[in-house]
Specification:
homodimer, Arc Repressor Mutant, subunit A, Beta-Lactamase, 6-stranded antiparallel β-sheet, 3-stranded antiparallel β-sheet, 9 strands, elongated, DNA-binding, WH-like_DNA-bd_sf (chains A, B)
DNA sequence: ATTTTTCTGTTCGCATGGCGAACAAATCCG
DNA sequence: CGGATTTGTTCGCCATGCGAACAGAAAAAT
């Protein structure tokens, strides 16, 4: 930004207030928002009242919750990503053929964002839908996306990730994660075994565009009771690579 | 809002700029945004540059597109709706049993917003995901949700709806739509036959909470080549009502 | 290739919007 | 019931955000 005077502080504050709401904090008071954002209580209050006035938040006299109207804010981004529309039929077909859930995601900072999904039976307790996020370092799709970056860039992202273990199997040492990325780079795919959630294993491959650049990741996830980690490549790598090859001609 | 001075105009402007992006207008210039929002060009420019600075928009030197980060703005709303989490397993089961896609949505103004979905084979060309919207007046779920409102309230929403026909079968006269709502009220369900999209028929029922209030709608959609509209009730009403009954005890 | 039109970047003066402190009242909690 | 916490409100202040105006760049038309 050329000039500091091109920046609108009030808008920035309001967006930070919206981001203060999440699954764990769905219903917040003025004091809650002031604490979560670090803004003055009166500032937080004006932001919340503005959101309420515009229909983005409901207010019961003390607590605020976001309303479905805020979904309009995000739809512009999903809509502007042609990738999701293009890959959906491929995911549906792949999911039908292999009998497992499949997804496509992209990297956004230290997280992956789901763009498209074809779901079979639920194997994860958290519902994953376009827009959902998971940490990149401990997901198969995240690992192939990080592996596609220059090594220093990947390391910087790992260093700023929240490496808090999510299961007892979570890999949390940066050096070991970098090793897994190197392996993913060499193998052309990544497998995770109950690192992001107990009971879930998944395998992912990168998706390339016609120029050979990695633009997304494709995975399938299976219940741990259903397949050993060591079997995932034998079972699913070939169909995933077939979709990878098919999409390479289509994506730009 | 008690005081006009509790309203933050700059925040309101910025949110309107974000909403200017949609599927048809995914990539906008400063002039485009000024035109779409009615704001001064310099104001539009500052909003866009602020969104870019915060990571919500990408900028190529002339055009802006929203980035996946704006999805964080909407996720707080979905997360704060326990309804989506509660109904998902019921949708998955129902979808498996009847072999068709099923969805749950709520009313937001003149539109329905999808909260949850269990998809089988794609019958619609537009991908519907949580957060997607369709006009209420010409969808089966929209009709049962409008039918649950006091009649004057429903009429006011019909009067402010965009009644542009989407297919040759679209019902667009307010009186005829009100008749369809009355029928839905009497029957306890609604069927639409290719009004929202050629090739799609669907049937929906309202979802009640333990207090008997309508809180959402549940539907299944089928390809027109697969079932006649007159057969939908015979084929699917019973399983839909079974889920309706089951959820009545669970929803609050 | 040139001219015209449209768009963007930038500056700047101005008005007021948004800020936060302070106080009173309401609510919550022990 | 008293103390602690939170919310509503007012208000003075000043920095923020606005929009006009101008120059330059880019795009479109000739």
């Amino acid at each position: 930004m050329a000039n500091k005077s091109d920046f609108i502080g009030s808008l920035a504050k309001g967006l930070k207030v919206i981001e203060a709401f999440n699954a764990e904090h769905a219903r917040l008071s003025i004091a809650d928002v002031a604490e979560a954002t670090g803004f003055d209580r009166a500032t937080s209050r004006r932001c919340l009242l503005t959101l309420h006035e515009l229909g983005y938040a409901a207010y019961d006299g003390k607590f605020f919750t976001l309303t479905p109207r805020v979904l309009r804010l995000g739809m512009g981004a999903l809509a502007s990503l042609p990738l999701a529309q293009v890959v959906q039929p491929w995911l549906d077909q792949l999911s039908d053929r292999i009998g497992q859930s499949t997804s496509v995601s992209i990297l956004d900072g230290t997280e992956i964002v789901y763009l498209a999904r074809a779901a079979q039976r639920r194997v994860m307790s958290i519902g994953l839908m376009p827009g959902s996020r998971l940490p990149a370092h401990c997901t198969s799709m995240g690992r192939v996306l990080l592996a596609a970056l220059p090594e220093e860039e990947a390391r910087a992202l790992i260093d700023t990730s929240d490496l808090t273990p999510r299961t007892v199997q979570s890999v949390t040492e940066p050096e070991r994660i970098m090793e897994r990325l190197a392996a993913a780079r060499t193998d052309g795919y990544a497998v995770i075994d109950q690192e992001v959630e107990v009971g879930l294993r998944s395998i992912a491959v990168p998706l390339y565009n016609a120029h050979g650049h990695v633009v997304a990741a494709l995975n399938t996830g299976v219940a741990a009771v259903q397949s050993e980690a060591s079997d995932l490549a034998a079972l699913y790598l070939e169909p995933l690579k077939r979709v990878q090859d098919g999409l390479r001609r289509v994506l730009r």
